[in-house]
Specification:
Number of strands: 11
Helix content: 25-40%
Number of helices: 6
Distance between the termini: 19 Å
Strand content: 25-35%
Order of helices and strands: EEEHEEEEHHHEHEHEE
Shape: globular
Length: 215
């Protein structure tokens, strides 16, 4: 089982040749701003289409322009935590977390049970009844992380998910990412401590990519 990403992406000044084979477990992507880290996540997620090459997950092709294959984001079994929290303002925290499961047709009670467990896993039980306007940036990020975890994705994509979380809350979330039930967790970070936790490290710099396995 692997995520295989090949081909080239061009976005303005960005010109990046991709040749990655991400194993199950936690992968950290590091590098300077503007190097293409978030673009890699968005290509995996299906928020952007590639210019050329192929994306396969567990041997299934999700994106291959040469043959016209492109599976849209909503049909990929993944969840992404954005730098912006993107919570639904009219729903409280527990219903925000339950929302992906409700969209899949799960009944409200069962979806809320999973959402409550996810909020507990990020240390946010007390936030369940609050709406986004009542949450701090760090609290909103915890809820966004819980929403991604509650969706039970095959691939969990994390775009600097700890940036707005207080230092005291980060160890719990690092442990959660490290032990994620998702087959793949792909984590964009600027923190070397976070990168040290990963099974696989991808460095992106000056249009070049280097992948190394970590022990």
């Amino acid at each position: 089982m692997t995520i295989i990403i090949s081909g080239r992406i061009r976005r303005g000044d960005l010109d990046l040749q991709l040749d990655l084979e991400l194993p199950p477990g936690l992968t950290a992507i590091v590098g300077p701003n503007g190097g293409g880290k978030t673009t890699i996540l968005r290509l995996i997620a299906g928020w952007e289409a590639r210019d050329e090459g192929t994306l396969t997950i567990n041997e299934r092709v999700f994106d291959r322009p040469s043959t016209g294959v492109f599976v849209p984001a909503e049909e990929r079994q993944l969840a992404m935590v954005f730098q912006g929290h993107r919570l639904l303002p009219h729903l409280n925290a527990i219903d925000n977390v339950a929302y992906p499961r409700r969209r899949r047709g799960e009944d409200r009670s069962t979806a809320r049970d999973h959402a409550a467990a996810a909020l507990h896993s990020v240390g946010a039980d007390a936030l369940a009844a609050l709406r986004p306007h009542s949450l701090s940036g760090g609290q909103s990020q915890r809820v966004a992380i819980a929403r991604a975890v509650a969706a039970d994705p095959t691939v969990l994509l994390l775009d600097e998910p700890l940036a707005s979380v207080d230092p005291e809350g980060r160890p719990l979330l690092r442990k959660l990412f490290r032990s994620s039930p998702a087959i793949y967790a792909v984590w964009v970070t600027h923190d070397s401590h976070d990168a040290d936790l990963a099974d696989c490290l991808v460095s992106v710099s000056a249009g070049e990519i280097r992948q190394t396995e970590q022990t």
